Predict the structure.
Amino acid sequence: MSEHKQHIEAKIGSEKGFGIVFSVVFLLIGLYPLMNGEVVSLWSLIIALIFFALAYIAPKVLSAPNKLWFKLGIALGAFVAPIVMVFVYFTTVVPIGLVMRLMGKDLLRQKLDKNAKSYWIERSQPVGSMKDQF
């Protein structure tokens, strides 16, 4: 079993929604050549029509492809999300931290002061309510 647990359980979409989304995707693929003055992709339009018809006439037929697509999305998310987070960390957090350090800033007040009696920060205003923080 994996160490990482999802706190939010992902819910699979409906078969009808799956069919409509895929019909729109294949419709766009089929019509894309028109932007360059080329001929419409007939195969893609046929697949779009099939998905659209199945979405409204027999959505249960799309149950297995919908489940496979959902599992593929979960797998890709588990693989891509950490890569994106590493990219964001090394392109934003690390450079900002280095710039702050070069400028001599200590926003978290981590430097030790041997002359300080206490690191307690006195408040000038009373603490507000913690209700409805977000």
Remarks:
- The chain has a mean pLDDT of 89.
- Helices lie at 15-31, 42-57, 63-102.
- The two ends are 34 Å apart (CA to CA).
- Residues 63-102 form the longest helix (40 residues).
